[in-house]
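Fold this sequence, please.
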Amino acid sequence: MIVAAAVCPWPPVLVRDLTGRDPVVPGLRRAAEQAVRRVVQSEPQVIVVVGAAQVTREWPPGCRLNLSVFAPTLQSACDPALPPSLGVGATLLDLAGYSGRRILQAVAEDEPVAGCASLGQTISRTASRVGLLAMGDGSARRGPKAPGYFDERAVAFDAGTEQALRRGELDALLAISPGMATELMATGRPAWQVLAGAMSPATPVTDVLYADDPFGVAYLVAYLQPSPAGAT
């Protein structure tokens, strides 16, 4: 069962090897590192990192982020094909000092909702104590300088996701339209729906640690754990 979970984005500003000791967005980095530490402190037997990619597949647990994905001039021995969502998640686990068993699980960007939920249910049965790290950004169309320029639907879309997480409303996460998420360039949709499938049908206790759009992209950091009534 899931004993703790974190939702984090995967921008390069979270990677110290790219931005240095002084973070570009200090509040975001602090929140992400804190959320992941709390998952590690829950003493899971395994932590599963889930992030969007071209296809749904599991990657070897020893894979790490290839820095050249974000900075072509930087050389790295790591597999450049590893989805950066998983690479940043693995980096956050390393920063938290986690050395236990980990699973790097990619989920296809176009994975149907039912497939995401089913994958989450499978993940929840991986061990008796499972930690989950769901990596994904919100919309990337929140202003004229955003990667996808401006879309008036973006703010409402991200507000709905944030409220669903604040309230622990997993059904609301499963109700996110894949088509709308794609149009708004919200890469987090598959991972959020895997999370919802993994923690359903409980209503988790949640703590949103960060919600902002410093670069026109919605970044959300949250920590979730089963409610006392749902814990066994």
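Residues 2-225 form a domain with the Protocatechuate 4,5-dioxygenase; Chain B fold (CATH 3.40.830.10). The longest strand covers residues 46-53.
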